[in-house]
Amino acid sequence: MSPTPHEVALSTDLYELTMAASYHTLGMQGKAVFSLYVRKLPPNRSFLVVAGIAEALRYLSQLRFDADALAYLRSLPVLPREFVDSLADFRFTGDVWAVREGTVLFPDEPILEVEAPILQAQLIETVVLNAIHYPSLVATKAARCRIAAPGKTLVDFGLRRTPSLDAGLAAARAAYLAGFASTSNVLAGEIYGIPVTGTVAHSFIEAFPSELEAFRAFARTYPGDPVLLIDTYDTLRGAQHAVQVARELRAEGRRVRAVRLDSGDLIALSYQVRRILDEAGFPEIEIFASGGLDEYALAEFTRAGAPIDGFGVGSRLGTSDDAPLVDMAYKLVEYAGHPALKLSTGKQTLVGAKQVWRHTAENGRYDGDVIAARDEAPPGPEWRPLLQPVMRGGQVLELPSLAVLRAEHLAEMERLPEALRRIDRVEPYPVQLSPVLRARQQDAVTMIRTREGL
Amino acid sequence: MSPTPHEVALSTDLYELTMAASYHTLGMQGKAVFSLYVRKLPPNRSFLVVAGIAEALRYLSQLRFDADALAYLRSLPVLPREFVDSLADFRFTGDVWAVREGTVLFPDEPILEVEAPILQAQLIETVVLNAIHYPSLVATKAARCRIAAPGKTLVDFGLRRTPSLDAGLAAARAAYLAGFASTSNVLAGEIYGIPVTGTVAHSFIEAFPSELEAFRAFARTYPGDPVLLIDTYDTLRGAQHAVQVARELRAEGRRVRAVRLDSGDLIALSYQVRRILDEAGFPEIEIFASGGLDEYALAEFTRAGAPIDGFGVGSRLGTSDDAPLVDMAYKLVEYAGHPALKLSTGKQTLVGAKQVWRHTAENGRYDGDVIAARDEAPPGPEWRPLLQPVMRGGQVLELPSLAVLRAEHLAEMERLPEALRRIDRVEPYPVQLSPVLRARQQDAVTMIRTREGL
Q1: Could you tell me the CATH number of the domain that includes residue B400?
Q2: Is A127 on the interface with B (CB under 8 A)?
């Protein structure tokens, strides 16, 4: 979707502006480095799939304070007039390093690092966090759904209960990035080229004098092979009606593509419906299920061997309802060449610009990461750096297409250690600090504790 | 924020369009009535505070298919060309009834009802649900925060981790509607006139050679009475630094307004910091706390009598993290004068256009609701109807200002039964069906079961 530059500029916590005002008044123009990372994963997650980087960069390149924004800011007594005037010329001119969208990451590993004059690097905090937090949660949940239902067709049905239309668009993109096959969200189809799918709701069935007449009317008017929703009144009776319509269509050389179940005991019903379809001579009609699904439900279907070919996953995906929040932070790690960090309980940050190196074992699986200072040499030949420049001097560098990112992500998931490819328990993944980073970190802590008399 | 008419039109599940295409091809123009309601509340909620109605109505009045939207839809093989062409003239021309935003509602009670030709009433399903689902969850959580921290100043800090910038704007509005005092979200200040507040982050403190110098720099450059963030390195040392700056400001006739704690054991620290401030002769400096707070944390502070004057509530509010989802549905209840409903397991709908009547007992508290057919007389003189017309013939009727809605909501919360004004357990509220509605419902179920041979 498209927040305007005005909306991007004002979609900020006021304190970004009060801090910027102080930096402006004090003439502080030193270069700051900020890291975006997760402090810890939600209790039921072994990894995070990163998404939302492209949107964050779009915000950075669009951020402008137009006349209306300046007029509103002048009305706030906490912002000096001269500072607000200076915002008319504000442009983000910094550099950004980031991992590829679709990358699997772990706590403390930078997702993105920003280097810019401190006023700029600070001012973008809110929009950068906002752009990446939610899509990463949805991509992570979508990846878990794929783990739980290997080989099944997964469709994003989330839009109606995502937290906004914008969020619905981001969720559709994140789910597709993580391997979903299609979405119900038409705008996501237009903007991102994601395949869009969908047929009818219960209300359609109810608007006709009977279920059978509704099926016939839909089959008559729908230009493709219809999917029939069979649970409005009674799922097994609905399956028989679907068979009847399939016979009528066969006489015309057409077919029913699938039936959809949306309520009841989906495992038991899927077996019964499969039998009805098979015995009637329609083994090619697929069964599609929806209704409050998530990775845990999908895993049950997989365990039960339920004869279901595809799933619509909606509200629980679009809200990441079992992990709606991750402790993702954007923290100053260096200012004017000096390391910066806070010592607050449980919230220590890793100083300086960093790189994450990932090792692939001989079996082709990842077996450990090292977080290093960015100016260090690689730990060895088998190590791959995850952070790359994505913006230089405020200009977005060429980014891979969504299709490429999706393919990379799917390959990445195959290389995860098997222990992490489960949804029923949380497994640690080995992440170490390089000796250089560890030494710099310790030096910085000592320096600050000494300086503050602690 | 402002999704364009194009974005509103395409932010829909594809099946709304495939159904509309069938209605168009079949020439079905009968009037449909749809009800929006929650089937059940989240397990940890006793009530729902409704929000998002104004946004839903804005979507309805803006929805247009422009040339680009039509071009994209023509590229989808499942939509007949002639139907897509007809969308060029699409306007929502229906009537809408709704409760006031800020109203407390319970399961099965209509939040909103739409009456329009079936194609129109169906096509808007996705955006109407989307507009109301998330803001209602945030308003509900905000109301619970107020219950947990009576008399305290509550500030929305959610924007950085809301699921989109749009969602952040909606959350700021919902929190203010439910009694929050202010927001950090500058755009929400501009658009809704909500007071905006905020001062500095840890990064500001870290950008200076020492905490004390950072406090002095901020005090020198900030045009008002500063709030000092004191937990970057050590909260108690930070409190002493705040005292020192407060003394220096006093010499200039200025003051420190508050200190903010953002980590550690906030209850213990608030007592220690209060003592430091009081003993130094600054009883007027307030203590403000933030950092992962929600209604459960606020209730602990209240129980402990922690000397904290205000709270920033952020990520857990903006994601409604303990209830990110409510089973809210938009269902056909009547078509062409005939009642409609589905019989799916656990998902029965109440037929026909409805009204909700609320009774106030002699003690001034609500003591029960009746869901009735809309054409029924009131149950009695002490009963107030909750649904009112808000849109006629596609035109939005005059809606109350946010300030009025907020005042009404705060009064409404005072009239809730005391048992419902708790956050630690769920209490039922008596909601009955009127005898007329119950009879019509039973007749409709019997009619459909007979018709479908069940």
Answers
A1: 3.20.140.10
A2: yes
